[in-house]
Design brief:
alpha+beta; 4 helices
Length: 112
């Protein structure tokens, strides 16, 4: 099994986060970062998983980053030294939501 998709995914994660830090203005009071990028074995499609803090801004944060995706795609194409640039899709990283629910459940069960 090739390590290449994992290597490209990690490179894309770092580059997307750099672009977000440099060029993106998130909705007021919102922090957005890419936690993971998975890439197809043919290196043509990539899914960037986005963490949005606070959780009550999930919808507006994801909408904002999707609107900014064209700029990210263009910057990645400019910086990437591969033959083709993977098409980027952005999805919510739902691990934060799940961890929050587990944390709340543990807190409520310990107060009983």
């Amino acid at each position: 099994m090739s390590k290449r998709p994992a290597q490209v995914g990690e490179y894309l994660r770092q580059e997307i986060n750099n672009i977000i830090l440099r060029d993106f203005e998130p909705p007021l009071g919102t922090l957005i970062s890419v936690t993971e990028v998975t890439i197809s074995p043919d290196l043509k499609n990539a899914t960037a998983y986005v963490s949005v803090i606070p959780q009550n801004h999930l919808g507006s944060g994801l909408t904002a980053i999707k609107k900014f995706a064209g700029h990210i795609q263009k910057e990645i194409g400019r910086n990437l030294t591969m033959r083709g640039t993977p098409h980027l899709n952005f999805e919510l990283d739902e691990r934060d939501i799940k961890y929050g629910r587990i944390d709340e459940a543990l807190k409520s069960s310990s107060t009983r």
